[in-house]
Every structure is written in structure tokens, then in C-alpha cells.
Amino acid sequence: MPEPPDSSESLPESDAATELPAEEAHDKQGLELAKSLAGRLKQQAAKGGIRPVKRRRRPRIDGAQISSARPDDRDPQKLTNTLGRLMRDQGWEVDVAVHGVMARWPTIVGPEMAEHCKPESYDDTVLTVRTSSTAWKVQLDLLVPQLIFRLNAELGEGTVTQVKVLGPNTYTWRKGPRTIRGGRGPRDTYG
Q: Which residues of 151-185 are buried (b: 16+ CB within 10 A; e: fewer)?
């Protein structure tokens, strides 16, 4: 079997094909094929016929976002992260924290006190608490500084500056069809 031409020989492609028989021109396999291709590429590069292929970049459209390998805001996010960012953006963090404290009220003040006093509202750093009796109102009035300290430890400093303690909801004798202007309450209505 005749040897294929050496890749270092500088024969033009058409001359190499004419010297070899037609059946051997296509029998090159494996390493011989790679050597012949490498030789041809070297020849063309020496002549300046091969230029590196430059990819054209697409022009960037202003405002278009392109995904990247690093995570960003367009990637799927955990729901807790998304809700946290929504609450922060809308300014709801304090309100949500206060409602969380109202839900955990028994663990903050203790089960006995939670049975007799319930938080009613929170408005602009003032927490309003309703008690079941006037005795519990007096007791809670004495514990307000400690309660404010505990609530600020849970919610963050300055979240609660004042606790307004209200007594039980009772019937008012100052309104109704049988009241007397300037009267003394229930003693003046029945007799």
C-alpha cells in the first residue's frame, strides 16, 4: 500500500488528488486523516486564507434584561423572602410584628394575665389593652413599664412607647331614655 503524501509537502490539493488513485483518495482513516487535515490547514493559514471566526454580538436593546449565571431578582424566589421584601417595601413590618405579638400574647405576659387582659389595638406606638375587671386594670397599670420593656424586646426598640390600659366594657348610665341631665347615674333613673 503506497504511503499518503506527507503533510509537510506543499502540494496543492488538486495535485495530491491527481497523483493518488481514486480509490485511495477516500480510504484515509483515523490518524492519517487528521494529519492530512492539519497539513492542509497549515498551508491555508500560511497563505492567509484562514481567518478566525468572529461572532457578532447582538446589539443590546435598552431596558432589556438578560439572564445571568448568578441569582438575581428575576429568578424564582422563596415565598418567605418575597413576602418579607413586600412587607418591607410597603412599610408593613411593624404592623405584622405587632399582630404577631397579639397572637402570642399569652406567652409574653403569662397565661393568668392573658386570661384577664387582651390587647385591643395598636396605633402609632400606643398599645391599647382591655382588662376584665377594674382590679386587673390597676394591676396592669402598675406593670406597664415592665410590659413596655418586654414588648420592645420582642418588636424592636421604640415600637411601643405607651400602653393604654382600659377597664371592662360596662353599661353607661349617662345615655338612654330614662336619664336625667345632671343626674347621679342609676340612683336617679328608677325612682
A: beeebeeebbeebebeeeeeeeeeeeeeeeeeeee
Partners of 130 in the β-ladder? 118, 166
pLDDT tens-digit map of 29-66? 778 888 888 888 888 888 877 766 677 776 666 665 66
Q: Where are the beta strands (DSSP E) in the chain?
A: 117-123, 126-131, 162-166
Whether 155 contacts 94, CB under 8 Å: yes
Instruction: Please list the residues that pair with 119 across neighbouring strands.
Output: 129
The type of residue at 140 is L
Task: Read off the pLDDT of residues 156-182 as tens digits, 9 standing for 90 and up.
Answer: 888 889 999 998 886 666 666 766 677
pTM check: above 0.70: no
Q: Tell me how far CA of residue 97 lies from CA of 28, 29, 149, in angstroms.
A: 78, 75, 16
65 neighbors 74 (Cβ within 8 angstroms): yes
CB 98 within 8 A of CB 155: yes
